[in-house]
């Protein structure tokens, strides 16, 4: 019976009919052979295995590419390389588990004649259908919180990057501007419509990665370069959790699968995407760390250390566009949850749905202004949210779903032979849960929160320009003052005028209010 259901899923029709995750308003009217329809299909309507591969690879590495050299300075060269390989493999395994659970859930629903033409299946619904509402609530809480802060990180990265081209505006102002730019993603209905954007995003990331590698090698090592990492446990586990975050981009796996015409082909796609991503992250991170060494400990964005050239400016612009695309990747599942909550998920009007999605962007905008700590926030999100969302919960859910002999016998997909079938799968899942819980969440959580609190103590909340260069004092020459040395008897030669104080940040008003609220 399970095999028959699986066959029906495998025989699902491709673009000619309403496919998996395809909204009705996306269907084309009229003759599909017209030039307009062919162009729309080429750029807009994606559902193939290639589209899924581009989506996974593009979403997996965006702004984090710029922080991996920072992680290498915390970990050291050898540990940085090993952690990338290890977490890349572990992330591919848990993405495979998520895909199997999705197929299991969907097959069971198809037996019940469920119709998904106007409904996108999400991870929390898979947990609900297979394991019950308590699993659903936990999965929903972790997944939404992770995607929320994942979107925040992309917005912070936009402000951090554009500052290296135009520093006339501070990073907080750039956050305001790019928050409005990222809000345009409300007009993209689903992952089915990211075909051209996924492709362009991966091209942009590929250019930036190889620019970092080549530019660092051409630049050579700075004078007196030191490669002292690892030096402190706090820094070591902070760097490790940033890499955990790097290969934890499969929080959108279910939505990407649901956008495919044949989702059963997804099983190896994430692994193939990870292998390509490693060809970008390893050379770039290793080259930048080789060239600049310990300087990266105070420069979480690798672009800040490279000299400004047209090639660097091109990398910045391309990364900006890709980060807006990745913002859409992280935020689209949140749009779906919000639509379902307010009852507009099956609405046929794209404009109405886009307007309804806008409130989701507001808290993301606000949090990016509160915590603009590019780099350290990645590690905090990785240890506290990614560890559970895409590693621990999928592994536990897979073990609980197939805990009975009956469930294993009727499983839609049997575990692969190279993994040791069911016994090997349970051993691997147990290892994933224990490792991520102890190393990722335990040590990583301690280290990343310690580092995150340190950033707050150093820069404060709502900081106007995180890690921006301090402007040099302005010195007034003697000739600039009429009347010689008056009114300074000793002359103006040694008189230094400090730059004007910046306007108080919003945090000033919070602190001021707190001092006058003793009676509350």
Brief rundown of the structure:
This protein has helices at 2-10, 35-43, 49-60, 64-75, 77-111, 123-131, 133-162, 171-182, 195-219, 233-246, 253-258, 269-292, 310-342, 350-370, 376-401, 405-409, 421-459, 506-515, and strands at residues 474-475, 496-497. The chain is mainly alpha-helical.
State the main characteristics:
520 residues; mainly alpha; two-stranded antiparallel ribbon; globular; disordered N terminus
Tell me about this structure.
64% of the residues lie in helices and 1% in strands. By secondary structure, the chain is an all-alpha fold. It has a two-stranded antiparallel sheet with strand order 1-2. Helix 10 (233-246) crosses helix 17 (421-459). It is globular and about 65 Å long.
What value does the average pLDDT take?
A: 81
Q: Sketch the topology as an H/E string, one letter per element.
A: HHHHHHHHHHHHHHHHHEEH
Distance between the termini: 64 Å
Strand content: under 5%
Runs with pLDDT <50, length 5+?
1-32, 478-520
Major beta sheet, specifics?
Answer: 2 strands, antiparallel
Q: In what order do the strands lie side by side in the largest sheet? A: 1-2
Helix content: 55-70%
Report the strand count: 2
Rg (CA only):
25 Å
Number of helices: 18
Which descriptor suits the 3D outline? globular
- Structural class comes to mainly alpha
SSE arrangement:
Blueprint: H1 2-10, H2 35-43, H3 49-60, H4 64-75, H5 77-111, H6 123-131, H7 133-162, H8 171-182, H9 195-219, H10 233-246, H11 253-258, H12 269-292, H13 310-342, H14 350-370, H15 376-401, H16 405-409, H17 421-459, E1 474-475, E2 496-497, H18 506-515
């Amino acid at each position: 019976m399970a095999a028959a259901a699986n066959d029906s899923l495998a025989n699902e029709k491709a673009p000619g009919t309403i496919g998996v995750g395809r909204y009705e308003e996306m269907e084309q009217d009229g003759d599909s052979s017209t030039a307009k329809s062919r162009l729309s299909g080429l750029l807009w309507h994606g559902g193939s295995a290639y589209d899924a591969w581009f989506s996974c690879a593009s979403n997996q590495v965006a702004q984090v590419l710029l922080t991996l050299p920072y992680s290498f300075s915390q970990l050291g060269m050898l540990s940085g390389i090993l952690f990338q390989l290890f977490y890349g493999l572990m992330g591919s395994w848990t993405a495979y588990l998520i895909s199997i659970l999705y197929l299991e859930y969907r097959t069971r629903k198809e037996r019940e004649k469920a119709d998904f033409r106007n409904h996108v299946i999400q991870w929390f619904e898979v947990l609900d259908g297979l394991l019950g509402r308590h699993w659903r609530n936990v999965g929903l809480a972790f997944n939404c919180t992770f995607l929320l802060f994942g979107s925040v990180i992309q917005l912070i990265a936009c402000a951090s990057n554009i500052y290296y081209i135009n520093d006339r505006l501070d990073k907080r102002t750039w956050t305001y501007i790019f928050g409005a730019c990222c809000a345009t993603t409300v007009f993209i209905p689903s992952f089915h419509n990211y075909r051209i954007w996924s492709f362009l995003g991966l091209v942009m990331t590929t250019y930036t990665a190889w620019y970092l590698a080549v530019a660092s090698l051409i630049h050579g090592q700075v004078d007196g370069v030191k490669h002292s990492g690892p030096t402190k446990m706090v820094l070591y586990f902070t760097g490790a959790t940033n890499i955990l975050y790097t290969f934890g981009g499969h929080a959108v796996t279910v939505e990407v699968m649901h956008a495919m015409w044949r989702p059963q082909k997804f099983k190896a796609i994430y692994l193939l995407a990870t292998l390509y991503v490693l060809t970008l992250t390893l050379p770039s991170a290793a080259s930048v760390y080789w060239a600049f060494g310990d300087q990266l400990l105070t420069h979480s964005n690798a672009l800040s250390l490279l000299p400004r050239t047209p090639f660097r400016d091109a990398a910045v612009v391309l990364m900006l566009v890709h980060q807006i695309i990745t913002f859409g990747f992280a935020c689209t599942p949140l749009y779906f949850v919000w639509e379902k909550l307010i009852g507009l998920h099956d609405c046929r009007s794209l404009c109405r749905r886009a307007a309804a999605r806008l409130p989701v962007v507001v808290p993301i905008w606000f949090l990016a202004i509160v915590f603009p700590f590019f780099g350290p926030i990645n590690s905090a999100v990785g240890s506290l949210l990614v560890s559970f969302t895409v590693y621990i919960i999928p592994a536990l859910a897979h073990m609980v779903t197939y805990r009975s002999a009956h469930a294993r016998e009727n499983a839609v997909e049997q575990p692969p032979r190279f993994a040791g079938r069911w016994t090997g799968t349970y051993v691997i899942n147990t290892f994933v849960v224990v490792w991520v819980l102890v190393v990722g969440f335990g040590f990583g959580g301690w280290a990343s929160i310690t580092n995150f609190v340190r950033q707050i103590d150093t820069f404060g909340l709502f900081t106007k320009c995180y890690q921006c260069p301090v402007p040099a004092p302005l010195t007034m020459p003697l000739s600039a003052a009429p009347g010689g040395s008056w009114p300074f008897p000793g002359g103006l030669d040694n008189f230094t005028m400090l730059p004007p104080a910046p306007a108080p940040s919003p945090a000033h008003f919070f602190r001021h209010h707190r001092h006058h609220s003793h009676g509350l």
